[in-house]
Amino acid sequence: MTATRTAEPAPTFDGVVLAGGQSSRMGTDKATLPWRGRPLLQHMRGLLEQAGAQRVLTCGPDPEAQGLPDRQPGLGPVGGLLTLAQTQADGIYLVLPVDMPQLTNGLLRRLVGALAEAEETPCATFAGHVLPLCLRLDETTRAAIAAVAGQAPRMRSLRALHARLQGAELAVDDDERRCLVNCNTPEQWQEVQP
């Protein structure tokens, strides 16, 4: 009799799109920019669904789904994570910015898999990037998010949160790095057009 090896079950996680920013450098709401025939926010939500997210939340206003408006406006991406920490149950959350349309399912699954395999690791990112972020939401990470949110504006950043949590950083090659480009300005947006 031969034994068959079963595949490891895919980790359970929820997806989050950070879409509550002012888009001041872009000059228009980034969430509504057209990407391959639909608004960018819908594209990013779709990426999370395709990667296996059980549910997808939006930190910020979302006309098609219940968004999570910042409970403390003006804190930037940390404010979105603070709202997430204050309103959602423990678990693994894959957090994407609304302005990174070239992300791939492979990269997203790799990030979730890295966190799921390392049970003591609070978060995982790609080297040199603060987002996307795979976060293990629990008492420890909630406290770290609250502490960073309470800092002076210059110290209130995702980079400061990463430093506090000391999570895993996954190496990326040049092709993967091109998929991790943020679009903050009209010029950057034009550069990523298909």
Question: Which terms summarize this structure?
Answer:
single chain, 194 residues, alpha/beta, Spore Coat Polysaccharide Biosynthesis Protein SpsA, Chain A, 6-stranded mixed sheet, two-stranded antiparallel ribbon, 7 helices, globular, disordered N terminus, Nucleotide-diphossugar_trans, molybdenum cofactor biosynthesis, nucleotidyltransferase, transferase
The appropriate CATH architecture is Alpha-Beta Complex
Q: Which CATH class applies here?
A: Alpha Beta
Structural class: alpha/beta
Considering DSSP H and I runs of 4 or more, what fraction of the residues is helical? 25-40%
Compute the CA-based radius of gyration: 17 Å
Unreliable stretches: 1-6
Count the DSSP helices.
Answer: 7
Mean pLDDT: 87
Between the first and last Cα atoms, what is the distance in angstroms? 52 Å
State the strand order across the main sheet. Answer: 4-1-5-7-6-8
Total domain units:
1
Total count of strands: 8
What composes the largest sheet?
6 strands, mixed
Query: How much of the polypeptide forms β-strand, as a percent range?
Result: 15-25%
Provide the CATH topology.
Spore Coat Polysaccharide Biosynthesis Protein SpsA, Chain A
SSE pattern: EEEHEHEHEEHHEHH
